[in-house]
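Re-run with default settings, no changes from the original entry. Doing this only to confirm the output is reproducible before filing.
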Amino acid sequence: MKKITIVGAGRVGESTAQILAKEELCRELMLIDIHDGVPQGVALDIQESASLLRFDTRVNGDTDPAAMADSDMVIVTAGFPRKPGMSRSDVLDANLSIIDGIVDAMLEHAPQAMLLMVTNPVDVLTFYAWKKTGWPRERVFGQSGALDTARMTSFIAMETGYSVKDISALVLGGHGDAMVPLARFTDISGIPIEEFIDPQTLEQIAERTRQGGGEILALKQHSSAYDSPAAAIASMVDAISHNRRRILPCVSILDGEYGQQGIAMGIPAVLDENGLVKIIELHLNEKEKADFERSAAMVKEDIARLP
């Protein structure tokens, strides 16, 4: 991609920009934030590391939404973060007006771009942005499944002591307390995870995955997670920028898949240069289907609050 814009130069936006620049996933990287000096300072700091980290990406910052013009992708990280004890849904009302303004700016200045939503509650805001833009669902998607799956993978590596490189996991559903970690689709070097971890411990790992962001927030107190979300965002951008046709769990607009419609949920999808081009529909067993439907019901409750 020639140009990527990140709206929100806070911790997630800055960490994402660092990875995208270092990996040279675009020629130009623009950071936009409402606080004058912040995006310019973050951009300059990253740019000054170019000779040390050996990248040619040009990084700039601005407060004017018009600076996103000609972007191939806009990544939205702006918004109010959770505080300890808050759920992702608790920040919906506060973040809705922020997303409203950003989407309006995209419609005016970057009408051909892809939109990658990160701001929570990501499922609901991805759906809202898709409805507001009227764009094809291939161009509007969200990040959560890649992060949730990465957390589950890490917890399995920590439990077993085996290389995280050999572990493949999968998490579906909403990006909240009712997300659906799927042990049946998890393995280590192709060997089913049940060969390594007993059912009780697997359920403990699943629950820790559901609470992964909250655990970090409770420990840090004054900041939510940003390094792992940034890495998850970069994995999605890499798949698109290099036309890899990777299958990654993403927040996708569902149109009958998994028995759901009028909703955005985390499911496995194919990412290539055209965006989210295919949804992979798994054959879930009865328990998995019930868990997925329960997660969908919680997302729909928040969607019902949308204007």
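The CA atoms of residues 168 and 200 lie 19 Å apart. The longest helix spans residues 92-109.
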